[in-house]
Amino acid sequence: MCQSIAGPPVDEAIGMLIAEQMTPAAVELALEVRKEIQARHEEADRLRCRAIERAQTEVDLAQRRFMLAHSSNRLVADTLEGEWNEKLRTLANAREERERGREHDQFILDKAVHERLVAMTADFNELWKDPDTPSRERKRLLAHIIEDVTLLKLPAEGTTKLHVRFKGGKIQTLTTMNPKSSAQQIKTKPSIVELVDSFSMITFILRSPRF
Fold it and tell me: pTM (2 decimals)?
């Protein structure tokens, strides 16, 4: 059978979720987390710098030992030269590791960016709630926040599960009520049917010749 899910309840639930998530308080919390991460990155960079300093010291020592080696003893000189080259490779690897780490961790959040993020939150909610904002623009706004939404319809329960995955990896599950079909909307409630049946039975009994 063809599957179908009504759009309005899903749209409303997603809209309410975004309105709850995109608040200045949420931005402030995210910025505090970002500062903590930045502090850890800086500590990691200091450790990488110390590794480079140690490697540079070992290179300098290996170089001096090689320079002091007597040229007549080629075996000793060759061994010391090999150690020197090995220390140079270690130093180069330490420097490359630091550059890779800095590229991965680099993120400077100044006051202007901070203020703009908070302002963007207010702008976002204003745009989202504006009835004149076209649906296509709302979709563009969502594309910056939500990675995807998985819908699971549960006909027996009359609900739909929404698994919302945000860009950062966070997942949140919502539940919406499925709207009734046309047949269900005009169908008489079972309680009314039982009441009519009971009334009909009473009427039949009262009209019986025995009464």
Answer: 0.44
